[in-house]
């Protein structure tokens, strides 16, 4: 475990890219819950299913790619492409859907 932390410390760009992307995912999820609450369709019993089917796959895949890119240098490009695409996807959803719906 200490070696992984040391590798992340040495490759801080990977670490901060991962954290930023996870922040986008977290913000999108919270704003989605707020939007559903505002519209009156928020159901707490459906939240775990939503997390398992729509959020955790992104988080897991990004963490796995980050770990692979720490050990296999050729994976770094794939990691950054994946981070960029996920950030574009969640950023677009945050801006176009959630914020507009919450503040209109």
Order of helices and strands: HHHH
User: What structural class do you assign from the helix and strand content?
Assistant: mainly alpha
By DSSP (H or I, 4+ residues per run), the number of helices equals 4
- Which residue ranges are poorly predicted, with pLDDT under 50 across at least 5 consecutive positions? none
Helix content: over 70%
According to DSSP, the number of beta strands is: 0
Record the SSE blueprint:
Elements: H1 2-10, H2 12-39, H3 47-71, H4 75-103
Helix pairs in contact: 1-2, 2-3, 2-4, 3-4
Walk me through what this model shows.
This protein is mainly alpha-helical. It has one domain. The protein is built from four helices and no strands. It has helices at residues 2-10, 12-39, 47-71, 75-103. The longest helix has 29 residues, at 75-103.
Quick gist of this model?
The chain has 104 residues and is mainly α.
Keywords for this structure?
mainly alpha; 0% strand; elongated
